[in-house]
Design a protein that fits this description.
Structural class: alpha+beta
Low-confidence stretches: none
CATH superfamily of the largest domain: Cytochrome-c3 Hydrogenase, chain B
CATH class of the largest domain: Mainly Alpha
Radius of gyration: 22 Å
Length: about 475
């Protein structure tokens, strides 16, 4: 068999992963319908080892294989020519290890782009370019957007990132910690910390309590609800519907202030620790969460229905920034952006998380546009509140359990672990390997923004340049989660 089949958060022996000839490795990835979760290189002495982890969403399995490329001949025929899912992965591999995917249609820098970057060009009457960033008004992070336009119509949007590339993956190998990982992407603290902790617990054979697992998921859903509510307000602000902007801003604050009461941080920094969690949710806190979220649900429900009845809102949302289902599939979009295009991927359910298996998501009819990206946030916020209430009920059955257990310091040698967490943006993937001495040898992170930035480019095609703020906020992608 050409793959090792594993589950989410399952440690496998590094030596059991099949190592294929590069031509066979390339051929099987080019032809498969399974989407890549991770595709990356690792230093292997005289060689570079390429690992690929594929998602079998129907079976809830992860298929892992690898190949070796000698450092003296670092090239192979590009997979992207036959399977566009590898478009960004091969560019990143080339940038990090110099492995040339021959024939790649768009071999440009991913992060190390500051010295030279050739933008796409277009000629014709009345064509012009509009450059925005990397420095923006307000407090948003740096990114450069290059619009190719004819008049006001956008023919192409090219996005250049990498302005705050910090070498996070190397830092994670040298000095891994919960405090480091939760600082990588400030609006996804719970998701990042949860993925890292699950990897380290698997590498140390640490079994945490059910109570700790439940508290983590309660925090994860609170993070999802809080950011979605804030984004709904920001989206309405971009179309000057200021009442909605202000109402959602106040309502989001209620959620994050509740996180503050739980953990001492509005973004749940310090809540999750390898071995469990640092803060309990007792009966009084559980009742407080339920009460606050009941009010939040009523406000979000009323404000959303009011906003969507507005002709002004509808005219700005509907048919703006359309991304087809076919495009979403081809680009391997993930998370709520994929779901807003009708592509139903959700790692909470696809990878059989035991605490979600009995939950039923609200059916969603995607319209593939700005309206759909706004509405999906509303639906997922209401679902998150429902899930939190169910998780709190389950928590009552484990009130006498510990919230934090001791963790061994030694990591199991020659190990490979994939941890997938459905962050509010989508599928967050962390992968770790250890060497024969039991030391971390590679730590790979794939934020959902890695998949979805190209979706934003597609959303702008054929739209007016004035639609960019609405589309950009509808995607709300991470700069720091991408730059790493």
């Amino acid at each position: 068999m050409n793959y090792y089949v594993a589950k989410n958060n399952q440690r496998i022996n590094l030596l059991d992963i099949p190592t294929l000839d590069i031509e066979l490795f390339r051929a099987q990835l080019a032809l498969t319908n399974l989407r890549p979760l991770a595709y990356f290189g690792a230093d292997w002495g005289n060689d570079i080892k390429i690992f690929c982890a594929l998602a079998d969403d129907e079976k809830g399995e992860i298929l892992v294989s690898s190949s070796l490329i000698n450092k003296s001949n670092k090239e192979y025929e590009s997979i992207t020519k036959d399977n566009h899912h590898y478009h960004m992965f091969e560019r990143e591999l080339y940038e990090q290890f110099g492995i040339l995917p021959k024939g790649h249609p768009w071999l440009k820098p991913v992060r190390k782009n500051l010295d030279s970057y050739e933008f796409f060009e277009m000629e014709g009457e009345q064509t012009h370019q509009v450059a925005v960033g990397p420095i923006h008004a307000g407090v948003i992070e740096p990114g450069h957007f290059r619009f190719l336009c004819q008049g006001e119509k956008v023919y192409n949007l090219e996005i250049m990132l990498g302005y705050q590339h910090r070498g996070v993956e190397d830092l994670m190998v040298k000095n891994p910690s919960n405090s480091l990982v939760e600082s990588i992407c400030g609006d996804s603290v719970v998701a990042y910390n949860m993925a890292y902790s699950q990897i380290m617990e698997e590498l140390t054979n640490t079994k945490i309590t059910t109570k700790a697992k439940l508290i983590r998921r309660i925090a994860l859903e609170m993070e999802r609800a809080a950011i979605h509510i804030g984004d709904m307000g920001a989206i309405l602000g971009d179309i000057a519907y200021m009442m909605g902007k202000d109402v959602y801003a106040v309502t989001r604050t209620l959620v994050i202030n509740t996180m503050l009461e739980i953990s001492g941080s509005r973004f749940a920094r310090g809540l999750i620790e390898t071995g469990g969690v640092n803060f309990d949710i007792d009966n009084n806190m559980s009742q407080k969460i339920t009460h606050v979220l009941e009010g939040v649900k009523k406000t979000v429900d009323k404000m959303t229905k009011t906003a969507l009845k507005s002709a002004t809102v509808a005219s700005r949302f509907e048919k703006t920034g359309v991304v087809s289902l076919e495009t979403a599939q081809e680009l391997n979009l993930t998370g709520m952006i994929a779901r807003s295009c009708g592509l139903e991927v959700d790692s909470r359910f696809d990878f059989c998380d035991e605490f979600y298996k009995d939950f039923k998501k609200t059916p969603f009819r995607a319209t593939n546009d700005a309206y759909s990206r706004f509405k999906i946030r509303y639906v997922e916020t209401i679902d998150s509140i429902k899930f939190i209430n169910e998780l709190l009920k389950k928590l009552e059955n484990y009130k006498d359990e510990e919230i934090l257990v001791d963790v061994k310091t030694d990591l199991i040698p020659n190990s490979f672990v994939v941890s997938i967490v459905e962050s509010w943006r989508g599928e967050l993937v962390h992968v770790a390997t250890t060497n024969e001495e039991g030391k971390l040898s590679r730590y790979k992170i794939k934020d959902p923004s890695f998949n979805n930035w190209w979706g934003l480019s597609m959303a702008l095609r054929g739209n007016g340049i004035s639609d960019f703020p609405l589309c950009n906020k509808g995607f709300d992608l991470s700069y720091c989660g991408f730059d790493l």
